[in-house]
Structure formats: structure tokens, C-alpha cells
Specification:
The protein has one domain: Vaccinia Virus protein VP39 (Rossmann fold, 3-Layer(aba) Sandwich). α2 runs antiparallel to α5, α2 runs antiparallel to α6 and α3 packs across α5. A hairpin with a 4-residue loop joins β6 and β7. Helices cover about 40% and strands about 25% of the residues.
Length: about 250
């Protein structure tokens, strides 16, 4: 068994804890995406990684750890056509791995960096995605658009700004009763303590903290998903003008 096959087997063993079945076409799509990203990353710095194994586990496998939460809510609420917005999509994590495993879902990717948007659109075309929209725009701007505001069942964000400003960026997209899912390291506890005001003003309630471990090359590292429910409509005040949420967090 060569190194790539060993890596694939390791990935299969990991991801089977989070999905019912790993289909061959999903595995192939994910590998095609990661190869395309690896090639493009040599020209444009889209994602930080040193080895292909790091890309597979730190980024792709990590992205897919939200699947049990999303699938559970889809089933509980009987959502026929789930809608997911990913804010600060970067090189495609978590949105593209999630789309591969949630093909029936409608996705909106919001990314302010042009070269990253070009890649996201190229990857979408190469993978044959449908209902997959990429917008090169700031979240503060598109979060006020009538076709985006409070139109989504789920919002995700990974490696995006400070926690309070992150909440202000993503919550306006979510329907009342929908979920915000934020990927965090183990340093989230102080951020949660300081988020009381933001949670109140944005009508958000912490539902659960889902912790999991990612097998990296030299160690196994713990990460977390903060799952917040939107309990009411977003006030017209939010999101504030471009730059203000980061300069003056709630």
C-alpha cells in the first residue's frame, strides 16, 4: 500500500465516525478538489498547509465534523432543501467538503478576496456543483441584501476574525430558528464569556459545544464547533457598516 492509499484509509477510518457511509463518488470528488487546491496553491496562496496529509485532516476532515449536527437538524425539522451560507470561505473550507456530502443543499459562499472567489468558482465548475453560488463581497454588505438576509437554515464560519464580530457577520443571514456553526480551537472559552452582549443583541443562544479530535501528523489535536440558535429576527442595525464590527465589537 503506497502513501496515498494509506492516507486515504486513515481518512476513511476517521470520517466514518461522522457519516453513515463514505460513497466512492464523494471520496473521488473530495480528492479531486484537494488536488486542484494543491495545484492552485502553488500559484496563489489560498490555504496554509505544509503537507497533503495536513490538508486532508486539518482542513477537509475538520470541515466535515459539522455533518452530524447539520444532518440531525435537517432530519428533526424535516428540511427538504437545506440552505447553507459560508462566510469567509477562503480556499473552500468548510463549504466545498460540506457540499460534496450535502449535495441536495443550496450554498452561498461569501468571500471578500477576489483570487479566492475565482478559485471557488473554478472548483465548483470542475466538481459539477449545482445550487452553489460564490459572491466576491464583504459580509457586511451582502448581509443586508433582500435575497440573502434571513434566508438560510445554517451559517458556517471557520478561521474568521474575532468571535463577536464573527457573530455579527453571519447571524443576519440565518432564519429565526436556524443555526450558526462556528469552528474554533480550544481558546474559545474567554471569547464566550465576552460574547454575552453580542449574543443578546443578535438574538443568539448557545445550544451546544461539539468537541472532536483531528489526527495530525505528529499529534492528535482537539477542536470545537460552537452551535448557536437564532431566537428572533436580526435588528435592522446589524450588520453595521464595513469595518465597524471588527473595530468596535459588540
Amino acid at each position: 500500500m503506497d502513501i496515498q492509499q494509506q492516507l486515504l484509509e486513515k481518512f476513511k477510518n476517521f470520517i466514518e465516525n461522522y457519516i453513515d457511509e463514505l460513497k466512492v463518488e464523494q471520496q473521488d470528488q473530495l480528492m479531486r478538489f484537494l488536488q486542484l487546491l494543491t495545484e492552485t496553491n502553488l500559484i496563489h496562496n489560498l490555504v496554509s498547509f505544509k503537507t497533503f496529509e495536513e490538508l486532508v485532516f486539518r482542513h477537509a476532515a475538520d470541515s466535515l465534523c459539522a455533518l452530524p449536527i447539520i444532518n440531525r437538524i435537517i432530519k428533526e425539522k424535516n428540511i427538504a432543501a437545506p440552505s447553507i451560507v459560508d462566510v469567509g470561505s477562503g480556499g473552500g473550507f468548510p463549504a466545498i467538503p460540506l457540499k460534496i456530502f450535502l449535495p441536495q443543499s443550496r450554498f452561498l459562499l461569501v468571500e471578500s478576496v477576489g483570487k479566492k472567489c475565482v478559485f471557488l468558482k473554478e472548483a465548483s465548475a470542475a466538481l459539477g456543483f449545482e445550487n452553489f453560488r460564490v459572491e466576491n463581497i464583504r459580509a457586511e454588505e451582502i448581509g443586508r441584501a433582500s435575497d440573502c438576509r434571513e434566508k438560510f437554515d445554517f451559517a458556517t464560519s471557520r478561521a474568521l476574525s474575532g468571535f463577536n464580530s464573527n457573530l455579527e457577520f453571519i447571524s443576519p443571514f440565518v432564519k429565526p430558528g436556524g443555526l450558526c456553526i462556528i469552528y474554533k480551537s480550544d481558546k474559545y472559552k474567554d471569547e464566550l464569556i465576552n460574547a454575552e452582549n453580542a449574543l443578546r443583541k443578535l438574538n443568539l443562544k448557545l445550544l451546544e459545544i461539539f468537541s472532536y479530535e483531528i489526527p495530525l501528523e505528529t499529534e492528535t489535536k482537539k477542536f470545537n464547533l460552537l452551535v448557536l440558535e437564532k431566537t428572533g429576527h436580526t435588528q435592522n442595525t446589524y450588520p453595521r457598516r464595513t469595518g465597524i464590527p471588527e473595530k468596535n465589537p459588540l
